[in-house]
């Protein structure tokens, strides 16, 4: 039984737990409900108003999340047909999401669902996932953001951030991240805008906005920003240990380009940096992407059509702990550069080998497993855990 359940049962009036005189003791009833499949828990909200009140209690939601130890792998997929006609607003063009069992040898599909909204010609991508929430944003501007819990069929359409300046001389890039403030358990979205004046050689300027789900407001950060000239390489990002991480760069006074990991702590809302691995001379300018690796970080470098580099940070925050692993591409009728998408619970790296083929590869034994999902394009992969998060939210919440 959860340590918090007795306290929760005492905090709720007896009539808010017992729907009849033959009910079980409150702490036993709570312990039973919290262990049910999430669909059954949602069904329990229809039993009576008191049970609904219980299940929407923030303490119950937190306890349920602690009990949700089964992790799935979330795939966001477009079929070949949908990818070709994504601008047509009909069912076929909606993005398909699938959860797969990660601790199962056959990697079976657990369930699937669809994004509930169709915004005409607007197309969305996954920004990130956290505790059962999926954050989505539209392409280019990332000014339409949705925080969605598909398990309970609820979402929040985030209020619009500050509009971008409509000034022709400027060009900009937008990077977005999503994670949790580990101090307050508040879910936050960060939007980083990099502006460059086309008519001057001045370094780019950054603006950083952070949205809080708890306050339902955006705010612009004005202190502890990255140094002038910092450029964020967009997406993807890694959400680890209550902080967001992006690959970034800036030029030194002698015009040398240095790359680093830019870190935004979601609690203090301040930036810091982690040094990149000690790359070989021929690796320094290779494109790099980042992802979570357990409670630490991984970097991917696409070296050529034949292989890629994978760097693992064995100790989070310690740049000297970066360790290099080389993954060779499989040979076939055509050469494809493998694209790393993330990791399984076992530590196997998930690779997209061509347009539609996915495998997992053991970094020590090099054993390969075919993950299926053939016939799909534009895939995002991340851990996912079922939760009741958003079930206690009253304002701005949409159900479907």
TrEMBL record:
Coiled-coil residue spans: none
Protein origin, superkingdom: Eukaryota
Domain F-box: 18-64
CDD domains attached to this UniProt entry: F-box_AtFBW1-like (cd22157)
Pfam families: F-box (PF00646), FBA_1 (PF07734)
Residue intervals passing through the bilayer: none
Family annotation (PANTHER family): BNACNNG10540D PROTEIN (PTHR31672), F-BOX DOMAIN-CONTAINING PROTEIN (PTHR31672:SF10)
UniProt protein name: F-box domain-containing protein
Species in which this protein is naturally found: Quercus rubra (Northern red oak)
Lineage: Eukaryota, Viridiplantae, Streptophyta, Embryophyta, Tracheophyta
